[in-house]
Amino acid sequence: MKNESLTIKSNGTHEIEIKKSRFICTMERIETEDQAKNIIAKVSKENAKANHNCFAYMLGDDDHIQRESDNGEPSGTAGVPILEVLKMNELHNVLAVVTRYFGGIKLGAGGLIRAYSNATSTTIDSLGIVKLVNKQELTLTIDYNQFDKLKYFLEQESIPIEATNYTDKIDVVIAVSDAGFDALITQITNLLSDQFSYKKGKYKIFEVPYSREDRQNDENK
């Protein structure tokens, strides 16, 4: 996967009502097209009496797989608006199925586009977004009298301690991105007067909360 990507915090559903029509959005993380197809089939079966089960999803490290379906709605009024919301939010490996129970009042093409877009975007707001960050474990070996100083520094830098192992010295396990590695080692070297050692470990995916403010900051970089 990419070193960083965005996805939904959790799978779930959210419902809105527009002019007596119910729009129920089911959103899930996916890894393969087969998984996406199975979820679409499951939602469609569970909502067999619904008028439409429209969907869109993006897959792949560069989101090269993009699928959408209007499922009987006028062309371009459902699947594409759902997909555009996923793209606008840069959601990676995510499927959205929007089920519509018709309420008897026609919405028109523009109204449908807004309804399917709103059903998708409000579901994203409801579930939340996280950033998936590929980080490498880093074990810092220090003396006991250095622990409080290092712990305070890590807290100030918002770097969680993943594990702490006590022997004749203390092994403090943290995780760091490739981009921030050299700068962090320099900071810790200065902090501890170069009286420590470190060892790189395996890479893991960490989920970091991601807010609208974070998006604005990313866009302003």
UniProtKB/TrEMBL annotation:
Gene3D superfamilies: 3.30.70.240, Impact, N-terminal domain. InterPro entries: EFG_III/V (IPR035647), Impact (IPR023582), Impact_N (IPR001498), Impact_N_sf (IPR036956), Impact_YigZ-like (IPR015796), Ribosomal_Su5_D2-typ_SF (IPR020568), UPF0029_Impact_C (IPR015269), UPF0029_Impact_CS (IPR020569). Residues 140-195 form the UPF0029 domain. It comes from the Bacteria. Residues 19-123 form the Impact N-terminal domain. It holds the Pfam family DUF1949. GO terms for biological process: regulation of translational initiation. SUPFAM superfamilies: EF-G C-terminal domain-like, Ribosomal protein S5 domain 2-like. GO terms for cellular component: cytoplasm. Belongs to the IMPACT family. This is YigZ family protein. It comes from Lentilactobacillus sunkii DSM 19904. The lineage of its organism: Bacteria, Bacillati, Bacillota, Bacilli, Lactobacillales.
